[in-house]
UniProtKB/TrEMBL annotation:
Coiled coil: none annotated. It comes from Umbelopsis ramanniana AG. The keyword Transmembrane helix applies. It holds the Pfam family Nuc_sug_transp. It is found in: Membrane. Keywords: Membrane, Transmembrane, Transmembrane helix. This is UDP-N-acetylglucosamine transporter. It is a multi-pass membrane protein. GO terms for molecular function: pyrimidine nucleotide-sugar transmembrane transporter activity. GO terms for cellular component: Golgi membrane.
Length: 346
């Protein structure tokens, strides 16, 4: 009688199939997050710009710092709702106590990105108050380049020559897309004055802040197992503190005179909600992709918002617009195309 021990056969095909299903699910989540982010970015800039240059006669302009503060509170409330949905009412408070109260060092880690995001959000209102929407959109794409640089410096990301070429094509394409609206658009500002130098400085500083904060936050998200919702609550708490300090330091006299919500209307509320939920969408994209891919989604949203602008203001796409749109699409394809391992990285 044979004593040969039988070696169990591992279910290789089952394991491979499960891995493929997980990869497919991750890919679908990434695609959904990017599509929603494109729509959100397409509407936010137009709504925010319109809300800063148009108000009803006799109605004061809403205070930008209060809008930033309210957006942080809404983001915290949305994250708390998500945590309760995932864990149930019985485990809701224990989870918050374990991940927030018992880990103060994790909250301190978020001070840097939250402070930068608070600065960035206030700078966006300043920029959109002093620049036309098209000029802002073109200049704001510098954040893609700053994100790429900080990805290399902070995350150790190795970008191939192919990806650097994609970034270059993207910048050229977005600039060409914006040329028609930059030269043809004319807006009535209801007597509001605009300082282009202030606007350009604000948007450039916001680009640097966005690139550094985004990469820093990505590093924190991907280096720990902490829930994304908890991370966003930590980010929101710190951001709300910084935003409240800005409200009290710079706008308290106006608040004391006219109230915190002076000038608020339906459009203002929609802008605040859009900005708050947009921050969570960015976190989803960072979780399932990376900051540079997020930048491409933002760039594609510029094309969509430009199309909406053409539709609303009866503009006709020029050859510059069509060629620029094709370059952006080509850049997206070049960046996402798999690169052979033998290709030398920069």
């Amino acid at each position: 009688m044979s004593n040969v021990q039988r070696i169990p056969v591992l279910p290789v095909h089952g394991t491979s199939r499960k891995k493929n299903q997980m990869e497919l699910l991750k890919s679908k989540r990434t695609q959904i997050a990017l599509v929603v982010l494109i729509i959100q970015n397409s509407t936010l800039v137009l709504m925010m710009h319109y809300s800063r240059i148009n108000q009803d006669p006799g109605q004061p302009m809403y205070i930008a710092s209060t809008a930033v503060f309210m957006a942080e509170l809404i983001k915290i409330a949305a994250c708390l709702t998500a945590i309760m949905h995932e864990n149930g009412q019985e485990r809701f408070l224990p989870v918050l106590y374990r991940d927030l109260v018992c880990q103060p060092k994790e909250l301190l880690k978020m001070l840097i990105p939250s402070g930068l995001y608070a600065i960035q959000n206030n700078l966006l209102y300043i920029a959109l108050s002093n620049l036309e929407a098209a000029t802002f959109q073109v200049t704001y794409q510098l954040k893609i380049l700053s994100t790429a640089i900080f990805s290399v410096l902070l995350l150790g990301t190795a970008l191939t020559k192919q990806k650097w070429l994609a970034l270059l094509l993207l910048m050229i394409g977005v600039t060409l897309v914006q040329l028609p609206t930059s030269t043809a658009s004319s807006e009535k500002h209801n007597g509001s004055t605009q300082n282009q130098t202030v606007g350009l400085l604000a948007v450039m500083a916001s680009c640097v802040s966005s690139g550094f904060a985004g990469c820093y936050f990505e590093k924190i998200l991907k280096s720990s197992n902490t829930s994304m919702w908890i991370r966003n609550i930590q980010l929101g708490i710190s951001g709300a503190v910084f935003s409240f300090i800005a409200v009290m330091a710079y706008d308290y006299p106006r608040i004391a005179e006219g109230g915190m919500f002076q000038g608020y209307g339906l459009l203002t509320c929609l802008v605040v909600i859009n900005q708050a939920l947009g921050g969570l969408l960015v976190s989803l994209v960072v979780r399932y992709a990376d900051n540079i891919l997020k930048g491409f989604a933002t760039s594609l949203s510029i094309i969509l918002s430009s199309i909406i602008s053409f539709r609303l203001f009866d503009f006709q796409p020029s050859y510059h617009f069509i060629f620029g749109a094709m370059l952006v699409m080509l850049a997206t394809y070049v960046y996402g195309r798999p690169v052979p391992q033998s290709v030398k990285r920069l």
